[in-house]
Write a structure and sequence with these properties.
Elements lengths: L15 E4 L6 H9 L9 H10 L5 E5 L5 E10 L2 E12 L8 H10 L9 E7 L3 H13 L3 E8 L1 H5 L6 E7 L2 H6 L1
Parallel strand pairs: 4-5
Antiparallel strand pairs: 1-2, 2-3, 3-4, 5-7, 6-7
Helix pairs in contact: 1-2, 3-4
Length: 181
């Protein structure tokens, strides 16, 4: 078959809207997280509280064609350092993977007024979570920032041997990136 007859096939790319969650989104967020291994599942109540109490620093990605929530970021400003945004979880439905949804959610979050003073983004990642490492490395590069990591919550010291060590990832945003947001 000549090359001129080959056609590229791409995933369907519906328009995705990034917005602040509402408490009514809690159960959809909970179901999304449950479908995204290896994420730790929280209780439905926890996700309701995140949507309600921490909505300003959380993001849902909603497919405009059907209103389906296909992405989620839970984050918060550190209580003792409002210049640091801690990203707790990132989830993207399989149907929306490969479209840059996670990085776009993170960028959209940092563009919110509540994040105007954010100079540092932190998260924890286990060494085997390749998708999260790829996301935060890509995000760091896109911001012109350096990513640092160190073991933080250790398997034996903090998780009684029942969970892999979580590495604290720190991204210090350059001034130019903060003022562009």
């Amino acid at each position: 078959m000549p090359n001129s007859d080959l056609k590229l096939v791409r995933k369907r790319s519906d328009e995705i809207i990034f917005r602040t969650p509402e408490k009514e989104d809690g159960s959809s967020v909970w179901r999304l997280i449950r479908s995204c291994e290896p994420l730790d599942e929280n209780s439905l109540y926890c996700n309701l509280l995140q949507c309600d109490h921490f909505g300003d620093t959380c993001v849902v990605a909603e497919r405009s064609s059907d209103g389906e929530i296909v992405g989620w970021i839970s984050a918060y400003l550190l209580p003792d350092d409002s210049n640091t945004l801690f990203v707790w979880q990132v989830a993207v439905d399989e149907s929306a993977q490969g479209q840059g949804v996670a990085k776009r959610m993170l960028t959209a979050l940092l563009e919110r007024e509540v994040c105007n003073d954010v100079a540092t983004v932190k998260t924890t990642i286990t060494s085997d979570n390749d998708a999260s490492w790829a996301l935060f490395r890509s995000f760091s590069r896109s911001q012109g920032a350096r990513l640092k990591d160190e073991a933080y919550f250790r398997k034996d010291a903090h998780f009684d041997g029942a969970h892999a060590t979580e590495h604290m990832v720190t991204i210090s945003l350059p001034e130019a990136a903060r003022s562009a947001a």
